[in-house]
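Quiz preparation item.
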């Protein structure tokens, strides 16, 4: 029986050599030394199974003494790296151990059968639960702000993250204003007057990361002042239709805690004459005013506009700046129907504080 086993093994090895040689001529088998397993001694017999449930194959190698040595794949499925894991070493089952894996009891994990030189195969049930690695990112909750929310100055951000498997390691908000200036903030931060987008990023202790959808919101001061302006400019190269002359005139203020005002924007080369029907929100900060509202173009339709006007001192011409975006409808996450901006060539923009002086 022992001799027959040796002969059978020899025939099998010769058959494998023949198959691999034939395949090599077809360029199927190419030596890859990065896959070489550790040297455990003579008569090494490898067996593969995903022992830690992380999606790649780990390794058990039997050898002449009867011991089977466990190795965890700490690389990847396509580029394995073998790291000894003695907790996976199988019991000595006799000389020339040859391990094989299968789920013999149907409980979802790998059990083990080890054959030996004497012809005996020893069975081992896997009684240790295999906990797959945590691949689920944290859940992010943003309570404040809500999308497109309007808040008076003094409001604070309120966001958090939870992770029931590994626990949350870090959670941080990124606050970006309309000038593309960003800062990292914690929950509880109180933004100054302005127009912002908040994105929250959370990472758990298993290095899984989740990123929230952007939240657009406005912080205003109903006592912050008012803005007026009128003039003309030539839209720059980033505008929808550069070079043609555009005219504008506006007033924007708070009255009894609500924003009010008017906008008139005319761009003949684009066939646009926008007149406001409402001002939905207004912010006054430093030397700039931002406001959003709805209106009609050429007396028809429903359009949303957003204006950023800057008062850079006197005279207004050559220093002040006007920027407008217009959307067809109310979806301001879509690409604007029209946009125009530049330093004004004529006219003036005035930003006034609530006590009557210009904001410096």
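Solution:
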């Amino acid at each position: 029986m022992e001799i027959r086993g040796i002969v059978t093994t020899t025939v099998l090895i010769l058959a494998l050599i023949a198959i691999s040689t034939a395949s090599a001529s077809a360029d199927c088998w190419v030596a890859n030394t990065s896959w070489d397993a550790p040297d455990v001694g003579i008569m090494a017999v490898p067996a593969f199974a995903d022992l830690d449930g992380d999606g790649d194959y780990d390794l058990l190698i039997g050898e002449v003494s009867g011991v089977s040595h466990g190795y965890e794949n700490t690389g990847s499925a396509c580029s394995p790296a073998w790291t000894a894991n003695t907790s996976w070493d199988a019991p000595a089952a006799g000389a020339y151990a040859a391990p094989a894996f299968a789920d013999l009891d149907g409980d979802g994990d790998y059990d083990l059968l080890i054959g030996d030189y004497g012809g005996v195969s020893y069975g081992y049930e896997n009684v240790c639960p295999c906990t797959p690695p945590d691949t689920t990112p944290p859940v992010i909750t943003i309570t404040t702000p809500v999308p497109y929310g309007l808040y008076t100055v003094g409001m604070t951000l309120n966001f958090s993250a939870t992770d029931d498997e590994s626990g949350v390691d870090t959670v941080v908000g990124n606050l970006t204003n309309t000038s593309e200036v960003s800062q990292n903030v914690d929950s509880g931060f109180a933004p100054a007057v302005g127009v912002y987008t908040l994105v929250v990023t959370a990472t758990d202790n298993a290095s899984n990361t989740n990123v929230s959808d952007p939240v657009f919101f406005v912080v205003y001061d109903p006592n912050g002042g008012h803005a007026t302006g009128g003039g003309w400019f030539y839209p720059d190269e980033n505008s929808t239709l550069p070079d043609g002359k555009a005219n504008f005139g506006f007033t924007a203020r708070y009255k009894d805690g609500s924003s009010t005002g008017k906008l008139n924007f005319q761009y003949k080369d684009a066939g646009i004459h926008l007149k406001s029907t409402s001002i939905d929100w207004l912010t006054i900060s430093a030397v700039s005013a931002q406001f959003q509202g709805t209106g009609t173009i050429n007396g028809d339709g429903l359009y949303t506009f957003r204006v950023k006007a800057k008062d850079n001192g006197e005279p207004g011409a050559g220093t002040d700046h006007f920027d407008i975006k217009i959307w067809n409808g109310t979806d301001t996450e879509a690409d604007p129907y029209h946009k125009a901006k530049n330093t004004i060539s004529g006219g003036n923009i005035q930003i006034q504080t609530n006590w009557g002086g210009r904001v410096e």
